[in-house]
Amino acid sequence: MKRKCYCVAIYTIKPGDTLYSICKNYNVSVCDLMMANKIRNPYNLRIGMKICIPGELETMEPTDPVCQGTLYTVEKGDTLYMIAKMHRVSLNAIMEANPDIDPYNLRVGMKLCIPK
């Protein structure tokens, strides 16, 4: 049975990065990282390139362990704009409270910190 993986973080390639070093930092396999990003040549990383760090849905947590507000679980059809409007907070406030999210890649089950 194939397990479902989700993008739990977005990482921007920096000078000196290798797939191995990124995998070691995020505790994922090189194979999983290559498959999640459709990387065919592991030696062709470009500085500034953004890649998805794969993980299982259960491991998704806000990057800040202390959410100064409430946790919201993303549901099917949600957009960041809709979530902001529903909670009467600005889009900017949500993005500042969740700096590692990709606003164009929300996943069902992902947890977001909604600031007060």
Shape summary: elongated
Number of helices: 4
How do the strands line up in the largest sheet? 1-2
What gap, in angstroms, lies between the N and C termini? Answer: 41 Å
Give helix and strand order, one letter per element, not per position: EHHEEHHE
Features:
4 helices, two-stranded antiparallel sheet, 116 residues, single chain, alpha+beta
Topology:
Layout lengths: L5 E7 L6 H8 L3 H8 L12 E6 L13 E5 L6 H8 L3 H7 L13 E5 L1
Antiparallel strand pairs: 1-2, 3-4
Description:
The chain has 116 residues and is an alpha+beta fold. The protein is 27% helix and 20% strand. It has 4 helices and 4 strands. The chain has a two-stranded antiparallel ribbon with strand order 1-2. It has a two-stranded antiparallel ribbon with strand order 3-4. The longest helix is centred in the first third of the chain and has 8 residues, at 19-26. The radius of gyration is 15 Å and the shape is elongated. The model is unreliable at 58-64 (pLDDT under 50).
Quick rundown:
With 116 residues, the chain is α+β, with helices and mostly antiparallel strands. 27% of the residues lie in helices and 20% in strands.
